[in-house]
Amino acid sequence: MIFFIILAVGCKQAKEIDANESPSSDSVYHYLTSAKRKDLSATVRIENTNKAFRILTAKENTKSTRNDLNTVAQLYYDLRQESKAIEVATKVVESSISVKDSLNIARGYNTLGNQFIDKGANDSAYYFFLKAEKLFSPTRDSIYLAKNYIDKAFVQLYESDYSGCELSCIQALSFYKSSSYVQNQYNAFNLIGISSNELKNFDNALIYHRKALDFVNRYPEISQSKVHYRSSTYNNIGYVYQNLNNHREAIKNFNLGLAERNLLKDNPLVYAALTDNLAYSKFKLKEYQDLPRLFFEALKIREVNKLYSGVVASKLHLSEFYVAKSDSLSAQKMAYEAFLLAKKSRISGDLLGSLKQLSAVEQKNASLYSKEYIRISDSIQNEERKAKDKFARIAFETDEIISQKDKLAEQNRNLVYFFIGTLLIGVLLFVIRNQRAKNRELLLVQAQQKANEEIYSLMISQQRTIEESREKEKKRIAQELHDGVLGRLFGARLNLDSLNKLADDDAIESRFNYLNELKNIEQDIREISHDLNREKHALINNFLAIVNNLLEEQKSSHSPGIEWTIDEKIKWDNIDNALKINIFRILQESLQNINKYANAENIFVKIGKNYEKMELEITDDGIGFDVSIKKKGIGLQNIESRVKESGGDLMIKSKKGKGTKIFIDFTLGQNL
């Protein structure tokens, strides 16, 4: 009982603050650093913590801000500012949940758990520590997880779950093997020592208390603390020896604990416990020197500091002492006072101890006190079982909540996967469809190229035929000139030569006839020359002949009337054959579309020259269409493709009931 009180105060005052937090700004860093300085007064530290909190409240919800807020919450906790600690810890949890910052959520839960320990709400404390544990584990942050195990061990100790306390401390120590967090390692050894002592595993209790003492001796940050951990540990070791009835060894350890300088001033609780335990071991050895002075010294300190459980222990020890001294009235008085105080404080262990002592010193009411003792003992056992069951239930419910969250997260993941899969399938189908369209377009381009090649071959063939016809015509003309015109000229020349020698009327008439013959020959030569010019013009305008044939065929084979004009100034010989083919195909495709869809009565075609541009205009007075919503068919796509291939510009104007106009211009420069 006394051992437990000492450890609770000693350990809970030693909660560590991680001094390695990264500052979010120079000012925050300054205030937090000052707030952590234990050489400053509590008022100054609280003021610095308040300033840091005000700055952080105005900052954005970043990881650095959340880290600093957790440090502020821990500082408020250490400075016993409970309401502020809860406020900040709750703010940290809320802001961390919004961004799924598991580490800072867990740290916030840990701070809330410590606050509930101080409030005596151990079930709530255990709940928050368990939630923190579940979040710390996946983050692989071993230091925070280990500290959380230590904090949970305190709750288990307070609720008499000694086996659970040992397990939590062992789990914590497994993370502390190579760390510098010696204070929490000391706490773990102490808690295992307490739990082993309560489980009557005294050898194990001594092993772990000596490990704790070794940490005190090795590390100045523990040994030089005003909490006086060395004195606490000597008291704990002595208490185990008391339970082993080895009071001589117990006295040795109690005296070592009391030898610490300034113990009474710095930690009167530990001093009073050591003094009372020393007096009790002396009493057990019947060494009554300094008794009951030591008992009363410890009692006075405890009463002044309102350490009610310690007061009960001191009065019960005095009652036993007075029984040994045969002072039954004083023994009954002390036992009864202890009983009344235990009832007031409602500490079950103290109540059982006082009832047990009363049954020993008041024989007439011994039966009554014994029955009450048994009743309360059974009730305590039931409460301990309930506490263990409660912890198991909290753990189960927490696991259930986490399991439900995991299931919900899995469902959300499955939904995300489903939507992603659907999207991928949609994208795949779009790609396939797009690829098929590109393939069709490629096939169409290839077909157009093949058609262009055929047209070009046809035009070459036609050109070859024309050349052959030209050669034949040249030969014919040469024969005509040689056999006809030249023979007649030669005959006329000879006759004129012979007539030059004559001067009669017949000669004059003959010369006149031969002059007429020369005029006829001149006319024949002129006609031959004209024929040659017409041939050259026909050869130059062979493309125009193809276009004219197309337009004549449209006029004779289809119902719409058609009119056309072609600028004679266009130099067709200078125009590339590929462009000629595209112009012909565009004109052909346009006429086909008009015949199929326009229901037109008249068609107008114009091929003209405008400076360095050639313009093609095709107009009809058909039903028209809405160019903004009309889906483009293969025909229009082909026209667009050919215009683009030729480097031209296409413009289509159409309205329903107003006909359609296709206007294309090709930039050809000086070649036009």
From TrEMBL:
Keywords assigned: Kinase, Membrane, Transferase, Transmembrane, Transmembrane helix, Two-component regulatory system
This protein's record includes keyword Transcription: no
Name of one Pfam family that matches: HisKA_3
GO CC term (a single one): membrane
GO-annotated molecular function: phosphorelay sensor kinase activity; protein dimerization activity
Membrane-spanning segments: 415-432
Domain Histidine kinase: residue ranges: 583-670
Protein name listed in UniProt: Signal transduction histidine kinase
